[in-house]
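User: Round two. Same drill as before: sequence, then structure, for each protein.

Assistant: Same drill it is. First protein:
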Amino acid sequence: MMSKIFLFSICFISIATTALGSGYGVFTQGASGLGQANAVVAHPTGPSSLYFNPALLNDIPGRQIEVGTTAVYVDREVKLNSTGQTEDADSSWNFPSTIYYTHEISDKMTAGLGIFFPFGLSSEWDDDYEGRYIGTYVEMFSMNINPVLSYRVTDRFSLAAGLDFIYVDTDLRAMVNQTVVGSMLPPALGGPVYELLPDVEQKFSGDGWGCGFNLGALFKATDRVSIGMAYRSQVDVDVDGDLSFSRVDPRLTLLFPNSMASSEIKLPAQFVAGIATQITDNLIVEIGARWEDWDSNDTMTLELELPFLGQSAISQPRDWHSTWAYNIGGSYRLNEKVAINFGYLYGENAVPNSTFDPLIPDTDAHLFTIGTDLTYEAWTLSGAFGYEYHYQRDKNTTIGDPLGSLAAGMPVSTANGEYNTDIYLFALSLGYHF
């Protein structure tokens, strides 16, 4: 029974780590691209094309720099099956930002450097929320330092390659039912303790680096039709950090030892493709698709420096699956200074019903975007707005607080219910042509 207590505690950490391991892809890597729903793999948007398809850099003349940020607001709520009441996640703003620099070395060669945030997640629920034993807080910060080279093989065909140096920082928190743990404490350790005790807060924080590569290709089939493709490899990041506990009753401190801990986060491989058509001199439209290899997140293992009753590693199944997204976008140039951008994207979710949890209530989604590019001499200011509607997702699993029901006859805090999410995005980018 004691092994179940420790397994129970570690499983929550593993669940939270898995949430960050799967993460959310952050695709707001340039305001002009967002305004076109990221359908910009086969035609350039300026230096931010380094992210979408580095083979486009040969069409970006001279030396250029672009900086930008996106304000992301997530509105998330759940209608709980247990009470019929609605609870809201703690909403907050996040600001994934970017900086790109490109340098045309010659007619055939262009170099670039991008610093952006390709994966990230922020989700927070109150400490007394029904799903608090699953998780209350998760935040993932990632930074990609991406140097690239693009080579014009012929007038109609370009290839590019680069390296991805990715840094990941994580912060994961959940509550542990200390009352139940105390009731199961054996007499040899001074138990059992039959008192109502406050929940223990457990926290895992850690960081690490990983390295991968990216490739791009661009083929101009005609003067008006171009085809672009890009690939980013899977990146495995070894995250080292600390597992700590707070608000522990003095009689139970031996059950909650602070420890070094580590895990491996697998950031999935990605492939994008697009076909752009210059319909008129002022209007370009692109259709595209994106594939992400979330199958790499089949399990998550948390390794502990201080074993719990001989258990030095705990594995948690995730069973995520690969996904596709489909988009269409375009840009209409009103004149030399003003362009209007527009787009739509449909994206599949990666999380099966069996491992769905409140920290990543992922669902199929529709993204609608609009934006503008304003050019004045050597400056370009781009802005975009996006609204992402997520389908309702029902959680109806035993993921929750099995220890409470099995050991003490207490209700299972599974946080089962109907989850709804809406996301609002506001992006700005400023570019300068030297």
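Second protein:
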Amino acid sequence: MNEINQTTIASGIIAIALIVGAIVFTTGGDVRSGTKTFDVVMENNRYNPSEIVASVGDRVIINFENRDPVAHGVALPQFNATVPGGHVPAGGTARMEFVADRPIDTDAAVCGGPNPSDTTDDHGEELKVRVI
């Protein structure tokens, strides 16, 4: 009976170690941070959703799909983040990735140039990015 209890305890310890190892591996060692992925559609000079929210420490991935016949500029200079070439091409897709290492509340739509305080640029575009 004693051997069975020791085997059960050892199996439990191994199972817990495997679970903890999987968590550490998938989070890069930081169990407090996560990955937030957003799919944003650009259509009729609007972004849907028009606001994304992440937490400090999150790895943020934004996948853009542009259904408009013109390119749209997006950037977050505060995180040194943009899409390849600075614009999502007309009818195309692009991806922007960054680590949200500080709180922020800004507009990532940069048609006409980056302006963090702009929430009503010339085309009415707005992609509010909030990191809390």
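The helical segments are 2-26.

User: Perfect.
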